[in-house]
Each structure stands twice: as C-alpha cells, then as structure tokens.
Specification:
The chain is mainly beta. Helices cover 11% and strands 36% of the residues. The protein has a five-stranded antiparallel sheet with strand order 2-1-5-4-3, with helices on one face. Strand 3 and strand 4 form a beta hairpin. The termini are far apart.
Length: 80
Amino acid sequence: MLRSRGYGFGGNVIVRCRDGHLFTTIWIPAASVKSVRLGPWRVQRCPVGNHWSLVTPVKRSELSDEELAFAAQHRDTRVP
C-alpha cells in the first residue's frame, strides 16, 4: 500500500514525527522491533527531539535537498 502511494518501505525510510522532525528509520512492513504499529503509523522515539511520538513515512519527492540531507544525518537507534 505504501509503495503504491509513493512512499518507501522495507529498509531505511524517512519519517516525520508529530512535532515535524524528520529522521531516517528502518521500516519493515508488518513488523515492529522498536516501535508500536498503529496501521500506517508507528509510535517510536524521535532522535531529533528526544521524545516519543507518532511517526509517518514521508514521500522523498516532497522533500527539499536540505530536508533530505537533514533526515540522512538523523537516524534512530539501530535494531536492539
């Protein structure tokens, strides 16, 4: 479903938390190792704001070069 709507999945995906922070996380369809799945959303730790938040995937095509670079520099923790 996500891929048909232009979102990436199945690896490193750029997501946005409810506070608007962008970061990169591992997004594996139908699996959650470090987050709680709620349909197309997940609750997980935001490494930018250092808080728990609802995150959603972001279409890479809708981001500026600066936003892409920022998200690439801010990654969540690797799988425990």
